[in-house]
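Forwarding these from the shared drive since the link keeps breaking.
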Amino acid sequence: MSSDPAQRCVLVVDDSRFVRTTFATILRPSFAVREEADGEAGWAAIESDPSIVMVLTDLDMPKLTGFALIGRIRAATDARIRDLPVVVISGNEEAGSKERAREAGATDFIAKSAEAAEVLSRLHNVLKLVATNKELQSTRQALDQSTTHDALTGTLTAHYLVIEGRKHYAHAKRHDGQLSVMALRIDSHAEVVRAAGKDIADVVLKRIAKLLMDKVRTEDSVARTAEAAFMVVAAGTAAPQMLALAQRLQRELDEAKVTYRGTALRFVTSFGVASLSLDPVNTIEELMQLAMQRLKTASGLKTVPEPSGPQRLPGEIERALQVLEQADAARLGPGVKQLLKRLQRIAKKLH
């Protein structure tokens, strides 16, 4: 990390001018210093000034308290802001206040009465710790990207799925072929964790992954993309076939009967599908993103309980019907008219 003070700015936020001046005097031989008198002004400085590498803040301030300022920093979408070390300038606060600040995301605490040598030593140590953590994170990311398979489920990693997906996409484009993506989420995973614990939930995920890999072809690519989410990239598969696979998987998972210590574990799933036969995209990443967007708006459909009223069609089936009705039949193939008629008959029965 550079020793040039102009490149390493410490923001001091305190409504006491005396405290700000005291810490600024201590810090200036080693850092550039910016001072603000309340939490809102401090937050504005953090957003606008990328040279800030650390924040020193009081807790009891007007407009925006130190607790709220720390909360905003840790909730920021910008990693530069979110990862900033925040050191609380503490007076005679109760232990509960310090614990609350630590829970909000405070990195360290320094007493307002601390000697200059202690202040500088503590801050340099905090910056070294932050730098070390960033190096470890970079190393971990590099290892994750070099790994091809998920350790728990044996499916591909999300990073490697993109690599494989690009190959499928290039082949489909070159040969004017089909390519579809399905994103699948186990909505009830958190409930399984609460009911049976993490270890049992992991066993369940492994079984679901095996079921998924058994249902797809060997040339298809399956990856675990999140704690309880999977994605399938299927070459040579159009939207109707991928929708049928998604529905079949969803039905089997919803009907699965697993008990733990006498308690039935129910599985609720959702899926999102995107396909070159329906979606104009320029990359496999765009196709994956479309499937993820549709997954986010989907809701798990339980197929086991008897419906109390007319059944609603799954959202993806509704969308498929709408697209097929408006699509170019010649582009989708000779069987599309028969498929559309069959789907419409099913829709009438369900409605």
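-- next protein --
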Amino acid sequence: MIHSNAKPGRILVIRLSSLGDVVLTTPLLRRLRALPRRYIIDMLTRERYLPLLDCIDDVDNRLVYPDDSAAVKTLKRQLAGNHYDAVIDLQNNIVSRSIVAAINPAGVYRFRRARVNRWLRIHLPARRGKLKTPPPVAEGYLATAKPLQVIDDGLGLELNVDAVSAQAMRKLLRVYHAEANLPVDIVPLIFAPGARHNSKMWLPERWVELMRRAYAAGFESQVLIGGADEAGLIESLQSQLDFPVLTTAGSINLKELTALVSLGRVLVSNDSGPMHVAAAVGTPVVVIFGSTVPELGFAPFRCPAEIVQIDGLECRPCHPHGRKRCPRKHFRCMKEIDSEMVMKALLRASGVEWSVPAAEIQR
């Protein structure tokens, strides 16, 4: 894009959390960069997601929203001094609105969630068939900036892989493969069994079954990823497997996570942030949906993906973002998804045709 010689404007994009939502901003950021007028693009997020912004070329200044109230006041004064032409508030909650009020920009554009549609979809199951499906959240972010002449380019999410992080992750895989007596250049499957809310998590025993099936089908290089708060889950899964698995729970940062996922053959995930990272680096995705549904806007965006879910349950979705536990106490949305269903999706995503007898996983 050739920009005009006019003095650059300045735009602030606010998306404080979470991992997936930050990744979903990348089409918008790319199209802001493509505008005829040159803009300095600042992005504000929480500190834990800041490394991810290093993987987004279209952000000029990466800004941290602090936890300390005094630091927040200082930040607001600094932002007000930047004299923004526009603030794009993708968070659109009481915190982000207080930031915008302190800045007093020339223009404010707020992301509007499909709250009514979501409420009807959750609480009036009989009307679901008549409801329109809202656009994906990433498209909603793009539409938020339409008054700025932002035009959707039809492309997907985009994260750049940091070269240093990629080198470190290749080394990590080489060591794992050497210790497991695997070919050095074998491409791993990557599994992300965690999620922020329990009702979005497939059953641990099913993950074990799936990984055994995959190993029996020839996928001998397997990696379990997750945050530090998921270390217990991942250690438990690893302990139930009788073949070597690489685990990285809490031991790598977001830039390294992005690099590692980019090196995977397929990512298998719950409805959680890693699936959006995979979509942004071109790794095929298998996603397991339980208490949430793709129609809420968080399906893998414009990428190769297989979705595994139980259709026809009147109790799903039960919440836009998941719950601590199943409100009906039966958890059918996850219990009825067996490892064979996910294995078939994994084989489709990887382009492999293979039949694995059930006896192979009952070890």
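The longest helix spans residues 163-179. The chain has a mean pLDDT of 95.

- D.
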